[in-house]
Design a protein that fits this description.
This protein is of the alpha+beta class. The chain has one domain. Helices cover about 35% and strands about 25% of the residues. It contains 16 helices and 25 strands. The strands form 6 sheets. Strands 5, 6, 8, 9, 13, 14, 21, 22, 23 and 24 form a 10-stranded mixed β-sheet that branches. Strands 15-18-16-17 form a 4-stranded antiparallel β-sheet. Helix 6 runs antiparallel to helix 8 and helix 8 packs across helix 9.
């Protein structure tokens, strides 16, 4: 990153862009109740049209696969049992899964209907091509920001064409369509109406978003709510803490919320970490027991749910590794054709389980900078790189091995031209920007639920190549968009 005292572009331009961002909800909420714009690039990245179209083709297939894996409950329990014992949080999730679905001898059939709103994150590696970094099946947010930053770049192109031309990676490229906000709302609304139809109801459907206490990423959430409200959906926000005393059962397993009534869709923007279930006032003997039971209660009712506990398990790093290592013929379990499996395999990067043999090999023979060590955590701060990997591996107890995996490190294309990042109203020239591309998909009961065969828009987060953490929230990431070149 190259900081320069002189303004790279007219400050009035970036000031107006920051104001546009806040005005359009591309912002985070500050502790004092004010808002700050999300960091963004001044002009979009370019991507080969063939690579982009390949991702559009393969990503709904991945979602179909994950959707079917997530409903294969015996497979989940058997394949993830060791990982669950190694990771306390996933151990809790597996206990919830047993409560909801039973075991082989005593299967249970919960009433909930799975709505899988997934973001599959990729990097376009210089040698390997585009590969999956991870699946995000719970709290897979920022879809609205993906649409808004696409609009922001079009706004720049229209208002300040010379500035846009100076900083865009390829002036001849054409913007990729991105209706992430509309398609996610479409999928949720149609799922809600299907639940209503089960009860022969035709009134206003209700959407419940489960949120974290003191959340700062609220505007992204509100953008989705506004889009749903435009479609006639009533939206409600609650924390797990609130829901523990406000949910109750109606007739025929209808999920009911105090002072609101029937709920048609439950969307979790919380629940991927222990703190979301922590309620000190309850003084529980077992941490997080009461609030985590709220998820069990929800899934015992006829309501569309994203993410179900099984979806969260199916999108874990360990399941990603299992699918990566699995022989092609084994995928027939979930009804995928040979051609579909081979297509899926083109985007799965090599992964290796952690055991004593792996640790010995890594210490003696591996190129330490060609791998990344991952645990099961969501969001930033859960990856170990380079020389730190050996140090971390040596710290692990044998009982912790199954919570971790090694993944072949991806080295994405650096942007061919410098660009400007705008963060906290300040301009920074970046010479080595690389991008992480997240494609959203929406499936309901295993079927695509958008107007685009399950595809629901994209989110691009770019960062300096030397920075390991690329999150918008927790790293050096900036919002970005895609233009296509032939």
């Amino acid at each position: 990153m190259n900081n320069m005292n002189a303004q790279l572009v007219d400050k009035q331009i970036t000031d107006e862009l920051c104001e546009w961002s806040i005005m359009h909800g591309v912002a985070f909420k500050n502790r004092d109740g004010t808002a700050s714009h999300c960091p963004f690039s001044l002009a979009p990245m370019s991507m080969k049209r063939g690579v982009y179209q390949h991702l559009l083709q393969v990503t709904p297939l991945l979602t179909k696969l994950i959707s079917r894996v997530s409903e294969d409950h015996l497979f989940l329990q058997s394949s993830l049992s060791k990982m669950a014992k190694a990771d306390p949080f996933f151990e809790r999730l597996m206990l919830l899964h047993h409560q909801i679905h039973g075991v082989k001898e005593q299967p249970m059939f919960p009433a909930r209907q799975p709505l899988l709103l997934m973001r599959t994150d990729y990097m376009d590696d210089r040698q390997q091509g585009a590969k999956v970094i991870e699946f995000n099946g719970i709290a897979a947010g920022m879809g609205p920001f993906g649409k808004r930053i696409t609009q922001l770049h079009q706004f720049i192109k229209n208002q300040w064409p010379e500035t846009y031309h100076d900083w865009v990676e390829d002036p001849s490229a054409t913007p990729a369509d991105n209706d992430g906000l509309g398609q996610l709302a479409y999928a949720i609304a149609h799922s809600a109406h299907k639940i209503q139809a089960d009860f022969n109801e035709t009134g206003q459907a209700t959407f419940l978003m489960i949120v974290q206490r003191h959340e700062d990423n609220v505007y992204d959430q509100h953008l989705l709510e506004v889009e749903l409200q435009k479609r006639g959906i009533r939206t409600v926000r609650r924390t797990f803490d609130q829901l523990a005393s406000q949910l109750y059962s109606g007739e025929e397993r209808r999920l009911m919320l105090k002072d609101i009534g029937a709920i048609d869709v439950v969307y979790l923007r919380a629940g991927y970490q222990y703190i979301d279930y922590f309620a000190p006032a309850l003084r529980e003997d077992t941490c997080c027991q009461t609030l985590s039971q709220t998820r069990v209660f929800i899934e015992q009712h006829n309501v569309a749910v994203n993410a179900t506990v099984s979806q969260q398990l199916a999108t874990s790093k360990t399941m990603q590794m299992i699918l990566t290592m699995m022989p092609e013929q084994d995928f027939s379990r979930w009804g995928l054709s040979v051609e579909e499996v081979r297509l899926v395999k083109t985007v799965l990067a090599e992964m290796v389980p952690i055991n004593q043999a792996t640790i010995t090999w890594f210490a003696s023979d591996a190129d330490k900078h060609e791998w990344v060590l991952k645990n099961q955590g969501e969001g930033g701060g859960h990856c170990v790189f380079g020389d730190e990997i050996s140090h971390k591996l040596n710290q692990l107890n044998v009982e912790q091995y199954d919570a971790w995996a090694l993944m072949k490190r991806l080295h994405p294309h650096e942007r061919e031209r410098p660009t400007i990042a705008v963060r906290n109203g300040e301009q920074t020239k970046i010479d080595d920007l690389v991008s992480e591309i997240g494609l959203f998909t929406a499936f309901f009961n295993g079927e695509p639920m958008t107007e685009l065969n399950g595809y629901a828009g994209y989110l691009v987060r770019s960062k300096p190549a030397k920075e390991n953490e690329g999150g918008i929230h927790s790293g050096q990431g900036i919002l970005d968009s895609i233009t296509l070149v032939d």
